[in-house]
Amino acid sequence: MQQVFKRPTSLKDVQTHFCSGCHHGTIHRLVAEAIDKYGVQERTIGVASVGCSVFLYGYFDIDVVEAPHGRASAVATGVKRAKPENFVFTYQGDGDLAAIGTAEIIHAANRGEDITVFFVNNTTYGMTGGQMAPTTLVGQKTSTSPYGRNKAKDGAPVRMAELLAQLEGVAFSARVAVNSPKNLIDAKKQIQKAFQYQVEGKGFSFIEVLSACPTNWGMNPLAANERVGTEMIDYFKLGVFKNL
Amino acid sequence: MTKRLFVKGNEAVAMAAIEAGCRYYFGYPITPQSDIPEYLSRELPKLNGEFIQAESEIASINMLLGASATGVRAMTSSSSPGISLKQEGISYMAGSELPGVIVNISRSGPGLGGIDASQADYFQSVKGGGHGGYHIIVLAPASVQEMYDLTMLAFDLADIYRMPTMILADSVVGQMKEALIANKRPVRDLPAKDWAVRGKGGGEQRVVKSLYLGDGELEAHNWKLHAKYQALKEQEVRWEEYETAGAELLVTAFGSTARIAKTAIMMAREAGLKVGLLRPITLFPFPEKALLEQTKTCKKVLVMELNAGQMVEDVRLSVARDAEVSFYGRPPGAGSLPTPEELLEQIRKHL
């Protein structure tokens, strides 16, 4: 009998700690499939960030450096400059990358560091219990925006994929989602393309992945998945914004 | 024939880093240390090294963290306000047991303060600086030659103990020019970096991290770090003694202040005064035992610092119980560098 579906080699055989309905597990799988596809597991160094994503090294069977909150792209810069022959990626959440780490991501991108950045946008600070993130949608209630995000006071949610696409150092920038089979297939394609850019030494590649956080959104997994496809995609348009 | 060079203290640091095999530098401009990044931005590319002028001190310490995690020798430098920004990264490096050399050509504070010489970063350097209760190795050069020699030592100590190591100097030592003999790197047995990330290449997964959530893991990790601090106190304490034989007053000072104090002591000895100097070279580990030994016979200690009194606390904790410790110093500020005559007057007062 032919096996048609299996765990990617670069993922460990461990139980998940992510909440039910959380998209991190799916995104982990897509990243792992790309590592396997390009055969770079043996020379990959991942940079973990602070948030739910920190446990990267518990799932991926690759070498990992853990970065301080927001500093993953600066840490990855140091890793890649010292080891240009290695495949280096960061995996960061929205609070990490788009709030406390804004300076680091913009300048790593602007220098055109030859790294790949996975940006998981779930419109909230997941690990700390659902506070307002730079990507929280206007009107969205969180534990620190109990009356809903107020555009006049909190500003509008940041669109990182479009923002970074403006920088000359960025070779590839796209936003994808994993909420439906169609979007998942496209996400897989774009994630692999982001890998290919680094494998070919083309420069900085950035993939924003929209993700559900049922626990902190106060929704069941199906409703949370539904929200990604409606409210989130409505504001965070899917697409490729830079493709050199 | 050994070549004698005439260089600035800051240049000596940069030259020593290259001699020690450092090929990766990450920094941000700030007075009075900019000679270091300027020198390395010129020299590292010639050696296939990497120089990055980062967007901030925060980014540069994290680039150092990343490079160090791969096992290469790397360095950053700054001055006081910039060193404050680096404290987060230094804490993470200490927690992740990463080597790496951090140079602080300190200036006066608090806040933006001023650019003149100051020793007011003593507490920040030796007591941890960032969060979480850790130490880093702190070396305090007092001459251009020591800027060179201690920078090379810093790379070795960082690798041997897997700890961030700091050179703490000020603009007097950083900006002055003196004769330098650029020694070759001393040969010291260095442990293999079998912890560094490299892309696992068929081997075991390696993770460089400071997060420990498992039951008892973090406590065990902290005791391991603590054991290294104890080992440093046993094995790596360095200090200089000058004219301590028969001294009735022991002056203790570090860095630039020790240089001025030494001149004052020469003048005092010429005048027949029995005074000596104990100059800590490693500020962490601190020469506790040497101070205890000296104060078994010499009961008066005068601590001189270019601040309002910081190292004096560690001296008080170290000396014999019946020793009397006095302090003379000035907080940072323009023109606060003491003259040898001023220190001699203090010596006379305390004898």
Main sheet makeup of chain A: 7 strands, mixed
CATH architecture of the largest domain in chain B: 3-Layer(aba) Sandwich
Helix proportion of residues of chain B, in percent? 25-40%
What is the succession of H and E elements of chain B?
EHEHEHEHEHEHEHEEHEEHEEHEHEH
Low-confidence stretches of chain B: none
Look up the CATH topology of chain A. Answer: Rossmann fold
Q: Evaluate the radius of gyration of chain A.
A: 17 Å
Strand numbers in spatial order across the main sheet of chain B: 3-2-4-5-7-6-13
Number of strands of chain A: 9
Comma- or semicolon-separated keywords:
heterodimer, A: 244 residues, alpha/beta, Rossmann fold, seven-stranded mixed β-sheet, two-stranded antiparallel ribbon, B: 351 residues, 2 domains, five-stranded mixed β-sheet
Summarize the structure.
By secondary structure, chain A is α/β, with parallel strands linked by helices. Chain A has 10 helices and 9 strands.
Topology summary:
The complex is a heterodimer of chains A (244) and B (351).
Chain A (H helix, E strand, L loop, with lengths): L23 H15 L5 E5 L7 H4 L3 E4 L5 H11 L4 E7 H7 L1 H9 L5 E6 L2 E2 L5 E2 L18 H4 L5 H6 L4 E8 L3 H19 L4 E7 L3 H4 L3 H15 L3 E5 L1
Parallel strand pairs in A: 1-2, 1-3, 3-4, 4-8, 7-8
Antiparallel strand pairs in A: 5-6, 7-9
Helix pairs in contact in A: 1-8, 4-5
Chain B lengths: L3 E5 H11 L4 E4 L7 H9 L6 E4 L3 H13 L4 E5 L1 H16 L4 E7 L15 H5 L10 E3 L4 H18 L2 E7 H5 L1 E5 L25 E2 L8 H19 L3 E4 L6 E4 L2 H16 L4 E6 L1 E3 L3 H7 L5 E6 L5 H8 L5 E6 L10 H11 L1
Parallel strand pairs in B: 2-3, 2-4, 4-5, 5-7, 6-7, 11-12, 11-14, 14-15
Antiparallel strand pairs in B: 1-8, 6-13, 10-12
Helix pairs in contact in B: 1-2, 1-6, 3-4, 9-12, 10-11
